[in-house]
Amino acid sequence: MSIKNIKRQRRALKTRSKISLLEKNRLTIFRSNNHIYAQIMSNGGAEVLVAASTSEPSVKDKKNGNLEASAKVGKLIAERAIEKGIQDVAFDRSGYKYHGRVKALAEAAREAGLLF
């Protein structure tokens, strides 16, 4: 495993340990080169309550790894969460820096009604 990935996983562990103290559902993201995935997990992390990604047919486009696609996923995850009655979550960025696609997803989710 590369040093860059090890550092990201270390940052993710630190963040998740602090989120577990909040006892809220978590909005977790995963970012690959081609897609971005978001899911809201239960407090213990055992159950996925809501999920959205750029690999879904409703969101899929020619370019799935850009800011616009991330914003669509953020809006979609927020809409699905509000339908299920989830409004307040903790944002788990999985060790990624709050920049670019991660930031676009978070801001779109906030604008659509999620609180974190």
Description:
This protein is of the alpha+beta class and 116 residues long. It has a single domain, classed as Nucleotidyltransferase, domain 5, CATH 3.30.420. It contains three helices and four strands, in the order αβββαβα. The protein has helices at residues 3-22, 67-84, 101-111, and strands at residues 25-31, 36-41, 48-53, 89-92. Strands 3-2-1-4 form a four-stranded mixed sheet. Strand 2 and strand 3 form a beta hairpin. The chain is globular, with a radius of gyration of 14 Å. The model has no long low-confidence stretch (mean pLDDT 94).
Would you summarize the structure shown here?
The chain has one domain: Nucleotidyltransferase, domain 5 (2-Layer Sandwich), CATH 3.30.420.100. The chain contains three helices and four strands. A hairpin with a 4-residue loop joins strand 1 and strand 2.
The number of helical runs is 3
CATH class annotation? Alpha Beta
- What would you say the CATH architecture is? 2-Layer Sandwich
Query: What coarse outline follows from CA principal-axis ratios?
Result: globular
Strand fraction: 15-25%
Q: Helix content range of the residues, please?
A: 40-55%
Uncertain stretches of 5 or more adjacent residues: none
Order of strands in the sheet with most strands:
3-2-1-4
